[in-house]
Amino acid sequence: MSTTDVTPEAAEAPTGSMKRSGRRFGDSVFSNLSIGSGLLIFLTLAAVAIFLTLEAWPAIRASQEFEGTAEFSLIEYTAPYVFGTVLAAVIALIMAIPISMLIALFISHYAPRKMAQGLGYMIDLLAAVPSVVYGLWGGIWLVPRLEPLYMFLNSTFGTWPRWPGFLPWVGGEPVVALFAGDPTAPMRNLASASVVLAVMVLPIITAIAREVFLQTPRLTEEAALALGATKWEVIKTVVLPFGRSGVVAASMLGLGRALGETMAVLMILAPGATFSWHILEVGRHQSIAANIASRQAEASGVDMSLLIFTGLVLFVLTFIINAIARAIVARSGPKS
């Protein structure tokens, strides 16, 4: 058969085969890179966990020399810092979530387009500010200006003669006795640290919530308006249910940032290690990250292992919180 007898299909077959082979090769490379990138995250987490466990093991092994039993001494050392870390993060989240959602709703549904763009840039800029800047701002400028508010809260809510009997009690005091005690200036207390943490996590929650609210189907909003719903009713019945899982995820990201924050808390909070609900008193609380940062320069041997053990506790705590957040998002996602 001569070359002129070759059909066009036969002539194009090698080229098409090469293209198909090239596409398969590219798909294989991209698939392997994706799988490797995903496995890299698990390997990194595993490496961090193994490192923390190995470095903390001398403290676990030698803890019987401190208090007689390993469980008692380690819990006694770590529990006050866990309490301070969680309490500061929860208070910061309680303050930040409502404000963040209101800002996100204003940007996504109320503000004019140019104003919304400007506010969005400002929110993103706040998220990029280093934590040491927040610490300087909080310690030098914010703390003195919060003193009148703290004194008002202490005099108004901190001196109630009788607390309701149905409230839960911890350590001989009701849980709501946050403003009790004897606050003294300068107010470098847990309340001030929580306010700064709230300012730090606010742009993170706002940015994610804003993007989630903007993804609400436009046709669904227009259908609600066509049925006679007001702007607030549209937000309440359409926007908020749609963005519920996103708001939960944003809040958990903010909580993770608040739990692990170091410099801002270190620069504002006067350290202490007690189980006190008096957030206005100075020298009562300390976070795990700030405690590690303040003591690691002079620590060595078993003392360093103790600090690493507290870091391991913070690592596990953050992992558990993120796992709970993923479960909440998975449950609320299909409903949205």
UniProtKB/TrEMBL annotation:
Q: How does it sit in the membrane?
A: Multi-pass membrane protein
Q: Which residues cross the membrane?
A: 29-54, 81-107, 119-143, 193-214, 262-280, 306-329
Q: Boundaries of each ABC transmembrane type-1 domain copy?
A: 82-325
What SUPFAM superfamilies does the entry give? MetI-like
* Keyword Cell membrane attached: yes
Among its keywords, does the record have Transport? yes
Alphabetically list the UniProt keywords: Cell membrane, Membrane, Phosphate transport, Transmembrane, Transmembrane helix, Transport
Q: Could you tell me which residues belong to the region Disordered? A: 1-21
Query: Where is this protein found?
Result: Cell membrane
Q: Which Pfam families match?
A: BPD_transp_1
Q: Which family does it belong to?
A: Belongs to the binding-protein-dependent transport system permease family. CysTW subfamily.
**What role does this protein play?**
Part of the binding-protein-dependent transport system for phosphate; probably responsible for the translocation of the substrate across the membrane.
The record's annotation in NCBIfam families points to: phosphate_pstC
Protein name, entry field: Phosphate transport system permease protein
Q: Which organism is it from?
A: Brachybacterium epidermidis
Task: Recite the lineage of the species.
Answer: Bacteria, Bacillati, Actinomycetota, Actinomycetes, Micrococcales
